[in-house]
Amino acid sequence: MADQTLPTNAWPANAAPSDLISPGRKRLGRALMAIATLGLLAVIAVQILYKTEVDTIGFETWRPVVYAYVLWGVALGIGQVLTRGEDGQRALFLLPALLFTIAMVIFPTLFGFYIALTDWNLSSFSGRKFNGLNNFWQMLADPYYRNALFNMVLYVLAVLVEYVIAFGLALLLNAQIRARKFFRVVFLLPLMLSPVAVSWMIGKSLMEYRFGPAAALARQLGWENPAFFSNPITARISIMVLDAWTFIPFMMIMLLAGLQAMSREVLEAARVDGANAWQTFWQVIFPLMLPVSVTAIILRIIFKLKLADIIITVTSGGPGGATDSVSSFIYREYRDRSNVGYGTMLAMAYLIIIIVFVTWLLKFANRFVRNVN
Amino acid sequence: MKVSLYNQLVRAGATRRDVMKGAASMAAVAAASGAGLGALTRPAAAADDLRAQILQIPGVGKGQPTDADFQQVGELCLGATKANVKEGEFAGVELTFMGLNNQNLHNVLFRGFLKAWETYTGAKINWIDLAQADYNPRLQQAIATNTIDFDIVEMGAPFEGDVCGKGLTSEMPDWVRQQIDMDDLVAYLKPPVGTWDGKQYRVTVDGDAHNFNYRTDVFADADLAKAWKDGGGGGEWGVPKTWQQVQAVTKFLKGKQVNGQDVFGYLDAPKPWGGFGFYFLGSRASAYAKHPDDKAWLFDPDTMKPRINNPAWVRAIQDVIDALPSEPQDQINADPNQTCFSQFLGGTGSMLVWWGDAGSNVKTNDSSVVGDVTGFSILPGSDDVYNSKTGQWEKLASGPNHAPNCAYIGWGVYVMARVDSDEKKKKAAWSAAAHLGGKDLSLWCAAYPSGFQPYRNSHFNIPEWVAAGYDEAFISSYLKSEADSYNHPNAAIEPRIPGIFQYYSAAEDILANTFAGKMKAQEGADAIAAAWEKLTDQIGRENQIKLYKASLGM
User: Fold this and answer.
1) pTM here?
2) Does ipTM come in above 0.95?
3) Nearest chain B Cα to A311, which residue?
4) Residue A10 placed within a domain
5) Which residue ranges does UniProt annotate as crossing the membrane (chain A) (predicted)?
């Protein structure tokens, strides 16, 4: 049959290889893209001049710029097909996602960096003013931000404890115990709950000083004044416990998946070699589980770095900032005080800290896993 | 015929026969319900009957009102609207209303109140509900980003600088002024409150002042009186009249019991509450800081230099630090919501400063156990008062200095300027606002949990409250504390300046650290002053000075 004789990389009937595209079509494509680009730049320029009160012609809102960007995206797509043929068609699969990412991630991030360099209080009569690195210097001298960063170090360290508990639970659920499936579902329930619901149900009800069952139990056990959130150390631990209760199931389920994927033969070989339970765990299971463990810990740390909801609901960062996280502090600075410029600087600085920290953590974890294995 | 309408007519004096004879059909009676009442009784008597009737919904001591009650009250109070608006006049109009939903009050009630209004006028209302702590940021963002997406807003007078000062609100038409009977407002809520540059913008639905709520059983307890005397307490055992006495009583009550229950003294609210928590320090400070010869007490009106770190405010901060060890163990983690609705209403603590709705809640809130043992007064005074001009503490010849804190100056309903371009929509928005600020409806709000307290001269008619089921001694004490606060010559008035809640929020954070022992009272106060100075510069000092002076009537 004729089509069986075609080479496998033959062009579809409606597409043309780039070298077969006529110069006129290429010119048309390039012209279309150039006109669209000029149009987009012109709309942006007009709008910037209007908003900075240099010119009187412009639009009331920035919405026309968005429309121009969408039109530019469409023209870009058509231009790609006209100038590059099938390569252009392939680009169409990627282009919408790329343009969407530029519009929804890259531009807001860059704009965020610009906002971080401005003095912008929502109540200010003079509006937004560029103030260079003033917010940055203010941040360096801000004891509340430093305190929140210190608390974050403690919260992140608590992940190691969560990991140990999660590993224990995973081992338990991996063993041949009764009602194993039931317990798997039950242990996952906290993860399904909203942290705000957890805050109210546990932090503000179960742990309530006067009538909370947890407080009553603590009294029975001999703690005279079981106020879980009134002194810095107990408040910090209480927040860690609340957060751990919610997220340990997340680590547990990842570790359980790793345990179930582990080869039975290796474990049986260890048993044949005379290893006891502890030796089997420490010298076989734990090293084999390291890649999964590292993934679970890193993902958990990333979640932990965003901790805010429980703190805002239960303690508002108190007592005396003891439970404040960077996110809950930014929330107050930005929302309660409408200090947009400074709040954005705090958020951007935290973003950079997170990126650097997580990158280092990944490299360290890779090296650690390689050395152990 | 609706049962409520039938009941209304019967209570207004008509017999069943009169009702049936006077109405050609059920629809005709329904359409003419307002006028029908007038035909059957004299107008003044009808108004009195209406007030008496709504106060029986559901009746004090008969459980907390429900949505059905709100709707019924809203329907019964529709007469004033009907006089200004034809039936179906606003058909096709959609309005968006932004307000609070604290404690299931505010907007939750407004929905019910406006149900009959929507049915009658044909307008439809969409609702934006906000928690108290979210209110300020939501409003500020809408203003700053020019994304006002609401036509009517429930707002406190402190925000008038941010909103009315920027020309974002619609000026009140004369017919609204007449419908809501503005002359009935208590004096301190009359202009300049609710106005900006001489224009009236606000339909007042609340009057705010912190008063002093105390437990009558604790201060009448013979065993405590004996222990007080045996312990060398100054004077007779009784309700504290000054903050110095509040401090002494709070320390004395630590570890004491009444009727087998632990009893505590004053309840502080140290936990930040979106800026609103600062008012509670203000109430502790006003007697120290508000000198009768000086209108200002928060800032120096000529320079906006903060007074928060003067000896008066520092003493108030120190009082909190000193009292906290004698308060419930977890008090450091209590916000005002908790001190009132969880602690005081639940029987913990014997002294509380709060807005007036604490008073109506102790009697009508289902969770209250102190309805029969609560008394009221204006805020405690101080044996001496700080004079900022001389830098000296003074003892007044007239006795202790009292300065009720008119915190927040009450909620109001404002119509946004964006409706001005559409006359029909504008009238609809103002009609809805006027319905909520109506004279009779407001009485019901003052008497039941609503988030609002008495604010009209007509609210202080004690027989009306007694007829509703309030105990006369209780309600007399409550209303007196409110009236005395509003009318006090040395009342501390809220500055209606832009960004005021940013000042409060910044202070709350620093105070939380100070109360937790991370810094001394003076250090904390100095840190607040520095933060406030920076904020004033950021917002614009010259404008702030001008607006601050205007808000103090200077």
Assistant:
1) 0.80
2) no
3) B333
4) no
5) 31-50, 62-82, 94-117, 152-173, 185-203, 237-259, 280-303, 340-362
